[in-house]
Amino acid sequence: MSGFRKKAFFAGAIILAVGLLSVSTSFAAKTIKIGVLSPLTGLYSIVGKRTSQGINMAVKEINDAGGVLGHKFEALIRDSETNPASSVRTARRLILRDKVFALLGPLHGGAAIAVLQESKKLKTMNFPWAATEEINTKFCSRYTWRVGSSAQQTSRAGAVIAHRLGLKKWATISSDFSYGRSVVRQFWNYLKERDPGAERPYAAWPKLGENDYSAYINKMQKAKPDAIYVGLFGADLIKFMKQARSFGMYEKVKIFTDFGGNHVVLKALGDQAPFGHWASSRYLHNYPVSAANKRFVDNFRKAYNVYPDMTAGEAYSTVHVIAESIRRAGAVDKEKAIDAMGGVAFNSPEGWIIMRPSDHQGWQSSFWGVISKSKKYPFPVLSNIQVISPVEGSHPDENTGQGCRK
Amino acid sequence: MEGSSSNKFSIRRLTGSVTNRFGVTALLALAVLAPFLVQNDYYIQLCTEILIASLLAISLNFLIGYTGLVSLGHAVYLGVGAYAFALLTKNVYPSMWAGLIAAGASCALLAWFMGVFCVRLAGLYFAMLTLAFSQVVYTVAYYWRDVTGGDDGMLGIPKPEIGIPGAFSISLESFTNFYYFVLIIVAALIFLAWKIANSPFGRVLQAIRENPERVEFIGLPVHRYKLYAFIIAGTLGGFAGGLYSTFQGYISPDLLYWTQSGEIVLMTILGGMYSFLGPAFGAGMLLFIRDTVLNFMEYWRIVVGGILVLLVLFLPGGILGFFEGWASRLSIGGNDGDDARS
Amino acid sequence: MELDVSFWLTQFLNGLANAMVLFLIASGLTILLGVLGVLNLAHGSFYMLGAFLIFSSSIIKNPSWFWVGLLFAPLVVAGFGTIIEAFCLRPLYGRERLYTLLLTYGFTLILDDLVLLIWGRDYKSVPIPALFEGRLTIGDFSYPVYFLFIIAVGPLLGVFLWFILNRTNFGKLIRAAATDSEMLDALGVNVNRVFTGVFALGAWLASLGGILAAPMRSVEPGMGVEIIIESFIVVIIGGMGSYLGAFVGAVLIGMLKAFGIEILENFAMIFIYALVLPILILRPRGLFGETTI
Fold it and tell me: Using the beta-carbon criterion (under 8 Å), do B259 and C225 form an inter-chain contact?
């Protein structure tokens, strides 16, 4: 055994050790770090950039106003890759290494549930982007909160509209995973409750990320429904819409899309959007016409030269709600902020959001509207907007919240 | 074509300098001291993940480096081991040992079943069949929601405490405890793998890689040896899967997807497939690079991909292989590392 | 009963349209395997590049954008493939095949991020070319014209490939290189040039697949990852090196996907593997494979 190899080994060991040590960075005292899991790549990357922009804008606003209790906000935005394993890994890194005050995201339903369990274990509050209703019920904990709408709120609101229009025969399509199933389940159960005569001859469950929906579309047409409810999200929805359009679905049935009112989707579809059909969005840049919304949209356009979409609005509000909870707690303390979270009210661009203590869900109205061409905007927007009160879409108290107190 | 005997990287480096006493002692000391060196729970759990990935990469190297069989479906053991551990500890009995044994045993059986068909093929056909098998398992895990949770995966996989019931027990919930637990298991399994690799059996495998016809000619049953190698690799991979399952506490079918298999091959080659510990080194490198780059720049794929391309073009023996080759050239001169077995 | 006929016919055409996109990718992949023995994981990235380039040409506000893109984008991708082959792949031919696998894997990672750097993160939507808008309607039966266009392009390119391989000098060289490249080299043929040509041809075909798929699917990084695995399955079924096999394999997969959901709605993928595994086990060279690799 040679001397040289000894040296090589020592050198290697030292390099490794120094490398590991040097990356454990210093901790700045007067900042509140928030960790953000944003889907910058993968299936949901369509909204990743806007999510990050919404976060950055809120952080800038808070800091320009002097911060919270003398602390500046700092956002650490990381790619969640729309992938559960990588989301969990990054969440751990943000909590353990970067010592974030709160963790925001991710968007993928399965990943969100995995991450919220991790943040519960590591005692850090987590605001998933995912709308799966299980987040407020089965998997809720002291550390899990959601500012954005839940699938329950938007889907039940959709059922209210569907019932109003008197549509009887339905087909549904949604991705085969937690969020996708949740959306359609909520819609269908609520519609059946209001209208026992409604029937559903066909429910399609393509896999997440499916490329070719033509076979499902053909089966839908065979079922001859009056209307279809589409729970697909992200790029999946756009693919489906384009294919449904070329098969003539736009003319044959009424289409309800849970995610289709989102600005980025409508912008991407452009002239191929399903005009005259119903869609919802958890935030709208053109509604409500309030001072808060106008200011948000103007500032957003000034900063990024694009319109904010649903995820931008929700991300923006989430950061402000966290700031508000710290102000209410009167101390920069994770646990105290959680104690103060229930009842926090924020005048968000989409209207007042009140953090409900029982199920940790932000109370807010849901918006459904008709996809229309607009003279004011160079892309389709929702018009004839119906505001559905949160009462319609919220979890009845007795069924939920047991988990949230743990 | 695969593994021609004119290969520049001689088999001798399989037992290259790292396996000498000093190197191993240094590495072990580093591994034991790691929690104190890194001082941060995050890096302790990153080291834990590196240990598990090391075991996985070393297990794959039984096929690639030793037997010359390029498997493109090794993630199947990571996944099946992980699901076996999760299903047993969640639904049947929450015991660490039972879970790990279930992970290893299920993968041994699976490898035996797959191996019977796979080892009859060589080269690209072997790679294709392993890929196809792993995709079948992926598809089943993805669509069989009732058992595997489908795309949502399985949550809340426990870290059962270890010890003797009634006498004493050690909780593995703390990052440091769990790290040492994984270190002991992984070190023991890697030691076992090393023993097998350097047994007469291991030498037959290497001979098969170099020249299967000659081995056949001597009268040794090549297929059966390949099958044994396949089962050993699968079983070790299964243990890695079981450890991963309890480590993450959450698993999803992504573990079984072909890109995951590609990543394991990547680790193996990155570190160097012709040295025993090379794949472990590659696993550490890849996870460390990804962890660092992912968190400091948006475009991490371009960095990892670029490193990979440069490595393939300029350091084909892998990183550890390169350093070992360099060291042996400098220290032994013309002797070409023949001392390594001492 | 009238309705059922149009339903099954539609399902059949859906399978066929799906198959033709797969065929374009798999045919390049299979020739590459047959001639170079290279399992090109970056093949899906060429598909992706084709889709991104047609997006860029769709920005031209002129009805001819699609034809401009269809003509030039594959040439750009083929040129890019030539560079990769000549500078990165060629030094690896003497080494173990594993290295080419890793190199191409590295390129899939690089290209996924490169398209993000060049084209940004905004969602890319490619419209259907005006000429192929609308549906062909005969009685109860109605089918999108664009899908029919895709179905027509597949066999056309199949014939074109057959012509190149069987009726041109280049094709003869390719087939000779597939059989014995060393012999070809000894005969004084510049084998490297043949290899580069094959690689460029493969990239050209894959990007055509991306262009045809773009108006119907989403144009995004990572879109190659899924398509490559399906293409491999096609290659396995058809046999490495056989473009006829790739055609048959692609049609089989397309049909299994379209009709499989009639039997086991959520488990349709399993039929594909139920077909692949026995073929690999019983006849590893595939249905039409000749070359031994």
Answer: yes
Q: Look at domain A152-281+367-392 and name its CATH class.
A: alpha beta
User: What residue ranges do the domains of chain A occupy?
Assistant: 31-149+289-364, 152-281+367-392
- pLDDT value for B236: 97
Confidence of residue B337 (pLDDT cuts 50, 70, 90): very low
* Chosen from B289, B295, B319, B341 to mutate, greatest number of chain A CBs within 10 A: B295
Which parts of chain A sit beneath pLDDT 50? 1-2, 21-28, 398
ipTM of the prediction: 0.90
Nearest CA in chain C to A239: C217
* CATH class, A31-149+289-364 region: alpha beta
User: How confident is the model over C136-182, as pLDDT tens digits?
Assistant: 988 888 899 999 999 999 999 989 988 998 899 888 888 888 777 78
For C144, which DSSP code?
Answer: E
- Taking the CA of residue A321 and the nearest CA in chain C, the distance in Å comes to 28
Count Cβ atoms below 10 Å from residue A313 Cβ, excluding itself: 27
- Residues with Cβ within 8 Å of A158's Cβ and at least 6 positions away in sequence, in order, are A187, A229, A256, A258, A278, A280, A368
pLDDT tens, residue by residue, A300-331: 999 999 999 999 999 999 999 999 999 999 99
| C83 contact B CB<8A | no
Q: Among A267-281, C93-107, C126-140, name the one with the lowest average pLDDT.
A: C93-107
Domain residue ranges in chain B: 11-341
Please give, rounded to a whole number of angstroms, the shortest distance from the CA of B133 to a CA of chain A: 20
**If you write DSSP's letter for every residue of C108-131 in order, what string do you get?**
HHHHHHHHHHHH-SSPB--PPPGG
10 Å CB burial of residue A327 (0-12, 13-18, 19+) is middle
- What are A235-293's pLDDT values in tens digits? 899 999 999 999 999 999 999 999 999 999 999 899 899 999 999 999 999 989 999 99
Assign B341 a pLDDT band (cuts: 50, 70, 90): very low
Q: Does A63 touch chain C if contact means CB atoms closer than 8 Å?
A: no
Number of neighbouring beta carbons within 10 Å of residue C283: 12
For residue C72, give both structure tokens. Answer: 């030039």
What confidence tier does C94 reach under pLDDT thresholds 50, 70, 90?
A: confident
Q: Does residue C34 form part of some domain? A: yes
CA distance C27 to chain A (A): 20
Q: Which of B121, B137, B309, B319 to mutate to test the interface with C (most CBs of C within 10 A)?
A: B309
- pLDDT (mean) for C115-133: 88
Q: Which of C103, C110, C269 sits opposite B301 (nearest CB)?
A: C110
pLDDT of C160 reads 92
Count of alpha carbons within 13 Å of B50, Cβ hemisphere only? 23
3-state SS, chain B, equals: CCCCCCCCCCHHHHHCHHHCHHHHHHHHHHHHHHHHHHCCHHHHHHHHHHHHHHHHHHHHHHHHHHHCCCCCCCHHHHHHHHHHHHHHHHHHCCCHHHHHHHHHHHHHHHHHHHHHHHCCCCHHHHHHHHHHHHHHHHHHHHHCHHHHCHHHCECCCCCCCEEECCCEEECCCCHHHHHHHHHHHHHHHHHHHHHHHCCHHHHHHHHHHHCHHHHHHHCCCHHHHHHHHHHHHHHHHHHHHHHHHHHHCCECHHHHCHHHHHHHHHHHHHHCCCCCCHHHHHHHHHHHHHHHHHHHCCCHHHHHHHHHHHHHHHCCCHHHHHHHHHHHHHHHHHHCCHHHHC
Q: Which domain holds residue C97?
A: 2-282
Residue in C99, C267, C270 closest to B312 by CB: C99
Average pLDDT over residues B265-279: 86
